[in-house]
Amino acid sequence: MNNLKLKKPPTPHLSLAAMVFASAIFSSASFANDISHSIRSDTEQTGSTENYFELGLMYVVGSSPSFGEENNWADLGLIINGSYNWNGLFVENYSESGHGLVVGYNAIDNDNWSLDLTVTTEMFQSNYENTGRYPGLNNQDYSEPLTVGGRLTGYLGNNILQFTVNQDATGDHNGTTVAALIGRNWQVRNWNFHGIVGVEYASAKLNDFYVGVSDARAASSRFNFLDEGASSYEAGDSVSFSTEFGVTYPITQDWVFRATGRVVTISDEITDSPYYVNKDSVATSLRTSLSYVF
Q: Among 48, 12, 17, 7, which residue's Cα sits nearest to residue 30?
Protein backbone atom coordinates (compact mmCIF):
# COMPACT_ATOMS: atom_id res chain seq x y z
CA MET A 1 0.00 0.00 0.00
CA ASN A 2 1.25 3.47 -0.80
CA ASN A 3 1.58 6.48 1.45
CA LEU A 4 -1.58 8.34 2.27
CA LYS A 5 -1.66 12.11 2.05
CA LEU A 6 -3.93 14.76 3.49
CA LYS A 7 -6.07 16.62 1.00
CA LYS A 8 -8.15 19.75 1.54
CA PRO A 9 -11.75 18.89 0.70
CA PRO A 10 -12.53 21.61 -1.83
CA THR A 11 -9.54 22.04 -4.16
CA PRO A 12 -9.90 21.18 -7.84
CA HIS A 13 -9.01 17.63 -8.20
CA LEU A 14 -13.30 15.10 -8.27
CA SER A 15 -13.97 11.46 -7.10
CA LEU A 16 -16.94 9.08 -6.70
CA ALA A 17 -17.22 7.38 -10.07
CA ALA A 18 -20.65 5.95 -9.37
CA MET A 19 -22.26 9.36 -9.06
CA VAL A 20 -20.82 11.27 -11.99
CA PHE A 21 -23.52 10.85 -14.59
CA ALA A 22 -26.36 11.17 -12.10
CA SER A 23 -24.94 14.46 -10.96
CA ALA A 24 -24.45 15.56 -14.53
CA ILE A 25 -28.10 14.83 -15.22
CA PHE A 26 -29.69 15.85 -11.92
CA SER A 27 -27.39 18.46 -10.49
CA SER A 28 -27.14 22.18 -10.93
CA ALA A 29 -24.68 21.67 -13.77
CA SER A 30 -27.18 20.00 -16.05
CA PHE A 31 -29.98 22.37 -15.11
CA ALA A 32 -27.68 25.28 -15.93
CA ASN A 33 -27.22 23.74 -19.34
CA ASP A 34 -30.97 23.37 -19.81
CA ILE A 35 -31.53 27.03 -18.90
CA SER A 36 -28.66 28.91 -20.45
CA HIS A 37 -28.33 26.74 -23.56
CA SER A 38 -31.92 25.74 -24.31
CA ILE A 39 -32.14 28.07 -27.29
CA ARG A 40 -28.97 26.55 -28.74
CA SER A 41 -29.33 22.78 -28.17
CA ASP A 42 -31.80 20.16 -27.07
CA THR A 43 -30.42 18.92 -23.72
CA GLU A 44 -33.49 16.95 -22.67
CA GLN A 45 -33.05 14.05 -25.09
CA THR A 46 -31.92 10.76 -23.62
CA GLY A 47 -28.26 10.08 -24.07
CA SER A 48 -27.52 13.59 -25.31
CA THR A 49 -24.29 15.28 -24.26
CA GLU A 50 -24.25 18.98 -25.00
CA ASN A 51 -21.18 20.73 -26.39
CA TYR A 52 -20.25 23.55 -24.04
CA PHE A 53 -17.63 24.84 -21.61
CA GLU A 54 -18.06 26.58 -18.26
CA LEU A 55 -15.76 28.18 -15.70
CA GLY A 56 -16.60 29.52 -12.27
CA LEU A 57 -15.83 29.91 -8.59
CA MET A 58 -17.53 28.21 -5.67
CA TYR A 59 -17.45 28.57 -1.90
CA VAL A 60 -18.23 25.56 0.28
CA VAL A 61 -18.54 24.80 3.97
CA GLY A 62 -18.84 21.29 5.35
CA SER A 63 -18.43 18.80 8.14
CA SER A 64 -16.99 15.28 7.91
CA PRO A 65 -14.88 12.67 9.70
CA SER A 66 -11.30 13.86 10.06
CA PHE A 67 -7.79 13.01 11.26
CA GLY A 68 -8.14 15.57 14.07
CA GLU A 69 -10.83 16.60 16.51
CA GLU A 70 -11.95 19.48 14.28
CA ASN A 71 -14.33 18.21 11.62
CA ASN A 72 -15.54 21.49 10.06
CA TRP A 73 -13.95 23.04 6.98
CA ALA A 74 -14.47 25.77 4.39
CA ASP A 75 -12.75 26.63 1.13
CA LEU A 76 -12.88 28.42 -2.19
CA GLY A 77 -12.51 26.40 -5.37
CA LEU A 78 -12.67 26.40 -9.15
CA ILE A 79 -15.54 25.03 -11.25
CA ILE A 80 -14.59 23.38 -14.56
CA ASN A 81 -17.61 22.04 -16.43
CA GLY A 82 -17.87 21.01 -20.04
CA SER A 83 -18.78 18.32 -22.52
CA TYR A 84 -18.32 17.40 -26.16
CA ASN A 85 -20.22 14.79 -28.16
CA TRP A 86 -19.34 13.35 -31.58
CA ASN A 87 -21.27 10.43 -33.10
CA GLY A 88 -21.96 8.88 -29.70
CA LEU A 89 -18.43 9.38 -28.39
CA PHE A 90 -18.24 11.96 -25.61
CA VAL A 91 -15.95 13.67 -23.13
CA GLU A 92 -17.39 15.39 -20.07
CA ASN A 93 -16.43 16.92 -16.77
CA TYR A 94 -18.85 18.23 -14.14
CA SER A 95 -17.42 19.74 -10.97
CA GLU A 96 -20.70 19.19 -9.11
CA SER A 97 -20.60 15.46 -9.78
CA GLY A 98 -17.83 14.63 -7.30
CA HIS A 99 -15.93 12.90 -10.11
CA GLY A 100 -13.29 13.63 -12.70
CA LEU A 101 -12.98 13.48 -16.45
CA VAL A 102 -15.24 10.93 -18.21
CA VAL A 103 -14.69 9.54 -21.70
CA GLY A 104 -17.39 7.29 -23.06
CA TYR A 105 -19.59 5.92 -25.81
CA ASN A 106 -23.38 6.00 -25.92
CA ALA A 107 -24.11 2.38 -26.87
CA ILE A 108 -27.91 2.40 -26.55
CA ASP A 109 -30.29 5.35 -26.79
CA ASN A 110 -34.09 5.24 -27.09
CA ASP A 111 -37.03 7.27 -25.83
CA ASN A 112 -36.70 6.15 -22.20
CA TRP A 113 -33.29 4.54 -21.66
CA SER A 114 -29.68 5.31 -22.42
CA LEU A 115 -26.62 3.11 -21.84
CA ASP A 116 -23.09 4.54 -21.77
CA LEU A 117 -19.81 2.67 -21.65
CA THR A 118 -17.35 4.82 -19.72
CA VAL A 119 -13.73 5.29 -18.74
CA THR A 120 -13.15 7.68 -15.87
CA THR A 121 -10.13 9.34 -14.33
CA GLU A 122 -9.55 11.62 -11.36
CA MET A 123 -8.11 14.31 -13.65
CA PHE A 124 -9.80 17.67 -12.84
CA GLN A 125 -11.19 16.07 -9.72
CA SER A 126 -12.82 18.37 -7.17
CA ASN A 127 -13.46 16.80 -3.81
CA TYR A 128 -15.38 19.73 -2.34
CA GLU A 129 -18.68 17.92 -2.58
CA ASN A 130 -17.43 15.62 0.18
CA THR A 131 -19.20 12.49 -0.94
CA GLY A 132 -18.17 10.81 2.27
CA ARG A 133 -16.30 7.86 0.87
CA TYR A 134 -12.85 8.72 2.27
CA PRO A 135 -12.93 12.21 3.81
CA GLY A 136 -9.46 13.70 4.19
CA LEU A 137 -7.60 10.85 2.51
CA ASN A 138 -5.85 10.88 -0.84
CA ASN A 139 -3.87 7.85 -1.97
CA GLN A 140 -2.52 8.79 -5.39
CA ASP A 141 1.09 7.72 -5.57
CA TYR A 142 0.23 6.01 -8.84
CA SER A 143 -0.50 7.86 -12.05
CA GLU A 144 -4.09 9.05 -12.37
CA PRO A 145 -6.23 5.96 -11.61
CA LEU A 146 -8.73 4.76 -14.20
CA THR A 147 -12.03 2.93 -13.87
CA VAL A 148 -14.12 1.29 -16.56
CA GLY A 149 -17.82 0.66 -16.35
CA GLY A 150 -21.31 1.39 -17.54
CA ARG A 151 -24.14 3.73 -16.60
CA LEU A 152 -27.78 3.07 -17.40
CA THR A 153 -30.10 6.06 -17.30
CA GLY A 154 -33.89 5.88 -17.37
CA TYR A 155 -36.32 8.74 -17.95
CA LEU A 156 -39.61 7.87 -16.27
CA GLY A 157 -42.12 10.70 -16.16
CA ASN A 158 -40.56 13.59 -14.25
CA ASN A 159 -37.98 11.33 -12.64
CA ILE A 160 -34.55 10.22 -13.81
CA LEU A 161 -33.00 6.97 -12.59
CA GLN A 162 -29.29 6.19 -12.77
CA PHE A 163 -27.55 2.84 -12.27
CA THR A 164 -23.75 2.64 -12.49
CA VAL A 165 -21.06 0.00 -12.13
CA ASN A 166 -17.35 0.91 -12.10
CA GLN A 167 -14.29 -1.31 -11.83
CA ASP A 168 -10.64 -0.37 -11.25
CA ALA A 169 -8.73 -0.69 -14.54
CA THR A 170 -5.22 -0.02 -13.21
CA GLY A 171 -4.82 -2.98 -10.86
CA ASP A 172 -4.10 -0.61 -7.97
CA HIS A 173 -6.84 -2.09 -5.82
CA ASN A 174 -9.22 -3.99 -8.17
CA GLY A 175 -12.10 -2.37 -6.33
CA THR A 176 -15.69 -2.02 -7.51
CA THR A 177 -18.51 0.46 -6.93
CA VAL A 178 -22.20 0.03 -7.71
CA ALA A 179 -24.70 2.86 -7.33
CA ALA A 180 -28.38 3.66 -7.86
CA LEU A 181 -29.84 7.16 -7.80
CA ILE A 182 -33.15 8.86 -8.51
CA GLY A 183 -33.76 12.57 -8.97
CA ARG A 184 -35.95 15.24 -10.50
CA ASN A 185 -36.28 18.99 -10.82
CA TRP A 186 -38.99 21.59 -10.24
CA GLN A 187 -39.22 24.81 -12.25
CA VAL A 188 -40.44 27.88 -10.33
CA ARG A 189 -40.26 30.85 -12.69
CA ASN A 190 -36.55 31.06 -13.56
CA TRP A 191 -35.48 29.08 -10.50
CA ASN A 192 -34.69 25.41 -11.06
CA PHE A 193 -34.83 23.29 -7.91
CA HIS A 194 -33.52 19.73 -7.92
CA GLY A 195 -33.36 16.78 -5.55
CA ILE A 196 -31.42 13.51 -5.61
CA VAL A 197 -31.38 10.46 -3.34
CA GLY A 198 -29.00 7.56 -3.84
CA VAL A 199 -27.21 4.53 -2.50
CA GLU A 200 -23.69 3.31 -3.28
CA TYR A 201 -21.88 0.05 -2.61
CA ALA A 202 -18.05 0.02 -2.40
CA SER A 203 -16.14 -3.26 -2.33
CA ALA A 204 -13.78 -4.32 0.45
CA LYS A 205 -10.76 -4.14 -1.89
CA LEU A 206 -11.47 -0.51 -2.66
CA ASN A 207 -12.06 0.48 0.97
CA ASP A 208 -9.04 -1.38 2.28
CA PHE A 209 -6.78 0.27 -0.30
CA TYR A 210 -7.65 3.71 1.06
CA VAL A 211 -8.27 3.24 4.79
CA GLY A 212 -6.79 -0.17 5.62
CA VAL A 213 -3.70 -0.26 7.84
CA SER A 214 -1.16 -3.06 7.40
CA ASP A 215 0.92 -4.40 10.29
CA ALA A 216 4.01 -2.73 8.79
CA ARG A 217 2.27 0.61 8.48
CA ALA A 218 0.86 0.48 12.00
CA ALA A 219 4.36 -0.19 13.37
CA SER A 220 6.15 2.43 11.27
CA SER A 221 6.97 5.79 12.83
CA ARG A 222 6.89 7.40 9.38
CA PHE A 223 3.10 7.49 9.46
CA ASN A 224 2.87 10.10 12.21
CA PHE A 225 -0.81 10.79 11.55
CA LEU A 226 -1.54 7.43 13.17
CA ASP A 227 -1.76 7.39 16.95
CA GLU A 228 1.17 5.71 18.64
CA GLY A 229 0.39 2.04 19.08
CA ALA A 230 -2.32 2.05 16.41
CA SER A 231 -3.55 -1.38 15.41
CA SER A 232 -3.62 -2.77 11.91
CA TYR A 233 -6.99 -2.58 10.19
CA GLU A 234 -8.61 -4.39 7.27
CA ALA A 235 -11.65 -2.58 5.86
CA GLY A 236 -14.66 -4.48 4.56
CA ASP A 237 -17.25 -3.50 1.96
CA SER A 238 -19.61 -0.60 2.67
CA VAL A 239 -22.92 0.98 1.72
CA SER A 240 -23.59 4.73 1.84
CA PHE A 241 -26.74 6.79 1.33
CA SER A 242 -26.90 10.32 -0.04
CA THR A 243 -29.40 13.15 -0.30
CA GLU A 244 -28.96 16.40 -2.22
CA PHE A 245 -31.16 19.44 -2.72
CA GLY A 246 -30.22 22.53 -4.70
CA VAL A 247 -31.27 25.44 -6.84
CA THR A 248 -29.94 27.00 -10.04
CA TYR A 249 -30.69 30.51 -11.25
CA PRO A 250 -29.56 31.99 -14.60
CA ILE A 251 -28.60 35.55 -13.78
CA THR A 252 -28.09 36.26 -17.47
CA GLN A 253 -27.76 34.19 -20.63
CA ASP A 254 -24.20 33.26 -19.63
CA TRP A 255 -23.90 33.77 -15.85
CA VAL A 256 -25.35 31.08 -13.57
CA PHE A 257 -25.77 31.01 -9.79
CA ARG A 258 -26.08 27.72 -7.87
CA ALA A 259 -26.57 26.66 -4.26
CA THR A 260 -26.59 23.01 -3.15
CA GLY A 261 -26.78 21.16 0.16
CA ARG A 262 -25.69 17.54 0.53
CA VAL A 263 -25.80 14.89 3.25
CA VAL A 264 -24.02 11.52 2.94
CA THR A 265 -23.84 8.68 5.44
CA ILE A 266 -20.42 7.15 6.06
CA SER A 267 -20.06 3.48 6.90
CA ASP A 268 -18.31 2.30 10.07
CA GLU A 269 -16.05 0.32 7.74
CA ILE A 270 -14.50 3.67 6.84
CA THR A 271 -14.47 5.53 10.14
CA ASP A 272 -13.34 2.52 12.19
CA SER A 273 -9.96 2.94 10.49
CA PRO A 274 -7.22 4.19 12.87
CA TYR A 275 -6.66 7.12 10.50
CA TYR A 276 -9.80 8.82 11.78
CA VAL A 277 -9.92 10.65 15.11
CA ASN A 278 -13.30 12.26 14.51
CA LYS A 279 -15.55 9.39 13.52
CA ASP A 280 -18.77 11.13 12.51
CA SER A 281 -21.15 8.90 10.60
CA VAL A 282 -22.43 11.71 8.36
CA ALA A 283 -20.74 14.18 6.02
CA THR A 284 -22.52 17.41 5.09
CA SER A 285 -21.72 20.25 2.71
CA LEU A 286 -23.30 23.48 1.52
CA ARG A 287 -21.90 25.14 -1.56
CA THR A 288 -22.67 28.24 -3.61
CA SER A 289 -21.14 29.10 -6.96
CA LEU A 290 -21.09 31.62 -9.76
CA SER A 291 -20.00 30.48 -13.23
CA TYR A 292 -19.78 31.70 -16.80
CA VAL A 293 -21.00 29.46 -19.62
CA PHE A 294 -19.25 29.96 -22.96
A: 48
